[in-house]
Amino acid sequence: MKDLLGFLIRRLGWMAITLWAVYTVSFVLMRAAPGSPFSAERAMPPAIEQQMRARYNLDAPPLQQYWDYMWGILSRGDLSWSIKLEDYSVNQVIAEGFPVSASLAIFALVFAIILGVSAGVISAVYRGTVADVAMMATAVLGIAIPNFVLASIAILLFVFLIPLFPAAGWGTLRQVALPAICLGLPVAAYIARLTRAGMLESLSREHVRTAFAKGLPKRTVIIKHVLPGALLPVVSYLGPATAGVLTGSLVLEKIFALPGMGSHFIYAATQRDTTLATGMVLTYTVLLFVMNTIVDLAYAVIDPRVELE
């Protein structure tokens, strides 16, 4: 229990340092980029622009802006107001977009784990067969092709040629299925390769050969003796997989017109909405840190030999 508590305290400390570094870098890059949030084809009257700058504290010196924004986060958890989305705070935008992005990520990860583990197990058990070669070749293609390319192909095939899914929107299972599949396929390809490698290593171990020699059914040996050890590399990959799903959803949410955090993040970046962009970056940082911590804890639970550091 002391080891767990110490681990969590250390992780919280590193998360605080990481958030401060990410906030500082984001703040500098946002201010260093050319243009301003009020730049447009039709010039805004100087008096109105001055009022807008005062409203969002952009007329203060950069160092004052830096401390004021950080103090608002630390004291009240306030990520300020969106510059481009009038009457919306950044907290409100994140609260509305997070359930969509989280649902998409969960569906994609569940699909990737089920498909990847199943393909990896079958490929390892029937090593050297046509099924093994076909699955690993498909996995290589899945790793090589970006998810936005898969999304474009999937829309052409399953929206226009074979109308099984709607092209965009959110709210029903049919609307979330296609983007979740496109988001999860590259992750499933990695999981399939990791599962196959772990399975082949476990199958060569002494206790597994002993279980086969005792006459235990093949399914029992694989499920009870082979699969738990083979899944350790998969569990360790779930942290990077979560990062891949979260960052990959940025483009897919735009392609499928999903009202998630990714769409808002791209909008903030293109429209120079500095407060919204900074809030999104910090939110994604927290999510990735939390997911990596959960994965490390799960890894220690599965393999007691692993020490939390």
TrEMBL record:
Biological processes, Gene Ontology terms: transmembrane transport
Transmembrane segments: 12-33, 104-126, 138-164, 176-195, 281-302
Coiled-coil stretches noted in the UniProt entry, renumbered to this chain: none
Keyword terms: Cell membrane, Membrane, Transmembrane, Transmembrane helix, Transport
Principal location listed in the UniProt entry: membrane
SUPFAM superfamilies: MetI-like
Domain of life according to the entry: Bacteria
InterPro entries found in the cross-reference section: BPD_transp_1_N, MetI-like, MetI-like_sf
Limits of the ABC transmembrane type-1 domain: 98-299
CDD domains: TM_PBP2
Membrane topology term: Multi-pass membrane protein
Record bears the keyword Transmembrane: yes
Assigned protein family: Belongs to the binding-protein-dependent transport system permease family.
Protein name: Oligopeptide transport system permease protein OppB
Highest classification ranks of the organism: Bacteria, Pseudomonadati, Planctomycetota, Planctomycetia, Pirellulales
